[in-house]
Each structure stands twice: as C-alpha cells, then as structure tokens.
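Model: You mentioned two targets. I'll fold them one after the other.
Researcher: Yes, keep them separate.
Model: Target one:
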Amino acid sequence: MSSKFVSAIYELLDDPGINGQKVVDELTALGATDATITTTPVNYEAPEDTTQICDFIKVVIKGSNGKSAGGETPAPTMGIIGRLGAQQAQPDRIGKVSDSDGSIVALASAMKLLDMSAKGAKLEGDVIITTHIATHVSITPHDPVDFMGMPVSSDTMNDYEVDDDMDAILSVDTSKGNSIIKHRGIAISPTAKEGYILRVAPDLVTLMEYATGRPAKTFPITSQDITPYDNGVYHFNSIMQPHVATTAPVVGLAITAKTVVPGSETGTSYESELVDATVFAVEVAKQFTWQKAAFYDADEYQTLFDMYGSLAFLQK
C-alpha cells in the first residue's frame, strides 16, 4: 500500500534537520539510480545570506520503453511535481506544515514507483518526479489566510522542477487556504496547455473515482492562475505555475479541506488525503505512460488553435 511510503516521507520531512541528501538517500535505498540534488541559496532580504538553502530533488524512474532506454518510439514521459513553498517555517513553527503536502505526495509516489520497479513491475514510460526541500521561509500575509513564503522565486522553481522531457505534468499542491473548494479530500483542475484552459480530462476523472471510490472533485482555475506568479494579479495559489514553463499539458492535483486551513500551520496534513493523492498520481503515471489515459483531446485542442490562434503569450 502507498500508505507506508506516505508515512515514511511524512516522518522524514518532520525532521528539523531535513535536507535534500536525506531524501535522496531514502530514494536510493529503494533502487533509485538517477536521483539528483541541486542546491540554491534561500531568498532573503539580505541576498548575501546563504546560510539557509533550498535543495531541488529530481528522480527519474525509468520505464521499460521510456526515453531513457533510447528506443526509436519511446512511450511518453510523465511528470509529477510537488509544488510548495517549504516543508517547515523555522523558527516561527515547530515541525512540518501543511504546505509540505505536495512534496509528500510527489516523493511517496516516487518511492512507490521505485518499489514497484525493483519488484519487476516497470511502467512503460519514464516518470520524472521533482520537488524541493526548504525549512526556513517567511509567512506572507494573504486573504483568506496567510501563505507560506517561497524560498526562491517561482521562475527558479520552474527552472529546476519542469523538465523538457515531461510530456504531461501533474502538479501537486496543498490547497486548503481558500474558500473556493470546501471538500476534505483531493481535487483536480481543468487541463492548462499553452495559455488555453481546456475541459477537465475525462480519463483523469475516471482514475480519480477508481483511486478514491468516491465521485471525483474538481476545482476552478482562471486565466490569472496560469499566468506568471509575480505579475501582480491574484492567483488561487501556485499549483498551476509549471504551466508557464512548458508546452506540455498541466493538471493541478489539490489536497483540500472543508474548512480554510493555512498552509503555514502544523498538524494540518491528513494521511487519508495524502494516500488518495499518491494512489491517484501513481495510477495516472501507469496509464499515461501506457498511453491509455490522456490529459487532453489533441484534436480538439488543434481545432481551438486553428480557430483562435496561440494563447502562449499568457505564459509570459
């Protein structure tokens, strides 16, 4: 069950001394041969202060017919991005905060896929999983609840977390600090691709219902949400930001609550929702790389493009 990997990552990220190396060591122990760390200074008011760091994690789980195998017609590559500000808000908070949920799901998915692969259950295509580790960020005033600060800019996150080999991206982020969706569980967004907000992917709705045993939940996004994070307009949160850095279709996977819960608070991560999100992410990776599930209707997208032209300017 994915629950053991969710629990393992939860406890790991609750460590006040957590860093990228500790995460990579856990992944390597499960058989990861392509897990890397890139370290950058945390953004502070004094840019020369490099005592705190942000570690970017990237792990590639190689498929039997993935791009990494070098075949002539490789299976598509799935991207799973754990989007967040930071796992902890030291020194203002003790322990893991709700904002870490996206990284928990991404890393637990990596652990599950690595465990499957080690046992001989390889996916058809590669899966690239990225996220980052940070423990010292500010808490930013925001309506209706305060946001966790970001250790680096959203553009920097995209530089390290969005990979050109990703043919579709599931961007996972806690999304409890809003009054838009009041549901304890998980929810998916419509698909965003190169400035277009497309219909909610029917294949992903089906997979969510299979994974949870409940009716699928979705949440709305607007044109504002798929524009760059620092352009001065309101964003639901950063869940759709990988869209601005890719031509691949992007779907947000939100962990949600019935009440407004700040991402900057501890004791606010719910295991059942994290397990549901991990199971869903793994199933999407299986079916997408197997070419049995799609993030969007390519023909319909082309029809829209032919009629209305490019909307890629919204990515800039």
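Model: Target two:
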Amino acid sequence: MMHILVCIKQVPDTKIIKIDPKTNTLDRRGVPAILNPYDTHAVEEGVRLRARYGGKVSVLSMGPPQAVAAIKKCVEIGADAGYLISDRAFAGADTLATSYALSKAIERIQKEEPIDLVICGKMAIDGDTGQVGPGIARRMGIPALTSVKNVQEINGANKEILVHRKLEDGYELLQSRVPCLLTVEKEINEVPYSPMPNMIRAARYKPVVWTVNDLEDVDRAQLGLKGSPTIVGKMFSPPKPEGGKRLEGKPEQQVRALVDILMKEKRELLIEGGTK
C-alpha cells in the first residue's frame, strides 16, 4: 500500500496569455486558469500506480484560493485527497521559495501519513524551468528522477523503483531507492475522460486548505518575494517569423538569384565578425 503525493500547479492558459509591456510580467487579467498539462499526466500516473500497487493518491498545490479548482480537477482524474497552501506570504515566490513552501507542507502531510513517492510534472508551462520538483527532492533529502517516461516497476519489499528516463540523445534505465521524487513527461500516459462518479465527487470535494500559520518551523525569510533571489529583467513575446522570399524566373535565374542572396549574407556576416 503506497501513499503517492503529486505536486500540481494552476497556471494561466498560455495559448491566450499576453505580456504587460510596462511591467514585463504576465498579464493574467481575463485569462482562464487551468491545471498545468504536465501535472495532469503526473496525477494520472499516480492513479495508475495506485491501481497496480494499491494505496492512496494525494495532491498538493500552492496558490490563491481559486487554485481549489485545479485540485478538484485532480480528484476528477482519480486522486483521493487534496491539499492547498494559500497565503499572501507565499505571493511572488520563485522556484526556490516555492520548493521551500511545498516541502514544509509535505513535512506536515508526512506526519499524518508517510509518503512513499512524490510525482511532479516535468515543468509548468508558465515558467518552463523544471526546477521545483528537484528543489523539493533536495529539501526532502530523497533522490530526484527527472524526465521519466515510464515506471517499469516498484518493488515494495526492497524499497526500489525502476524507471525509463528520457534524454536528449536516447533513454536510460534507472533504479533508485524509495521514497524518491519523479518528474514525468507527457508521453508517460494518456489521460482518459473522467468517469461520472469521479466528476460528481470532484464537484462536491473540499480540499484541506492551510495558511503559513498551519505549517511548522517555517522561516518566513525564505517565502514569497523575500525568499526569491530570481529577478526577471525583461519578458517579451518572440517576433513572428517573416515569410519566405519567392524567387521568380527560369531555374537558372533562380539559382543565380539564390547564390547572390547567400553571398550577400556571407559578406555581411564577415563584416560583422570583423568588427568584434
């Protein structure tokens, strides 16, 4: 019987998000919030592991009160319980402060029920850093297995886990002791439509909500903006790619035109390189 904890985040839908040119920050006004897509697969993997080995799946998030909706979505997928830490003291946290706050919440959950496995999405689509999961593992003192695409086996008797990890140039098979933390790729599973009983339960479910005062031994200097050394100097949308240039004329004319363009670009690069 395993207790699996999945750390999740509510994020703005980046397909329609804008950037405030004055503050260089994300303009979240009027933008719907969704469960981070990578975290959706993390929850689904927790549910599948529970089906294989038995146990319980809990989810944990940090955010404003409306992040309750993301936890309800996790319950709809199949999670058993949900926790939200919500307090102005957490506001403005970067990945370092976020991992600290979540690790403190995990400490409290551990006292109520020991945790065998922590799962996170590979990254959040509003930050793309992939740092929070490994940060939590470091603070908990457990191994972090990142970019996991398949959990092959968990040996409860030997307290070991065997996973396939995705690399830039291939894959590797890793064995680790349990408890440990996984960050998972989207390809680890397919998330099916939720059954009606789960949807009904999710609509009625009320997660546990904690403030900073509900956590123990918290150093407030490591929370929120105070505990965030990261500074974003500028944020901008990348320029849209320009359309290609169409070469007209006969094939030999097009070839000559293309050679002229390439030679011109080469000369410009040589001149630019010579001035540095």
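Researcher: Noted. Anything on target two?
Model: The helical segments are 37-53, 68-77, 95-112, 132-140, 196-204, 251-274.
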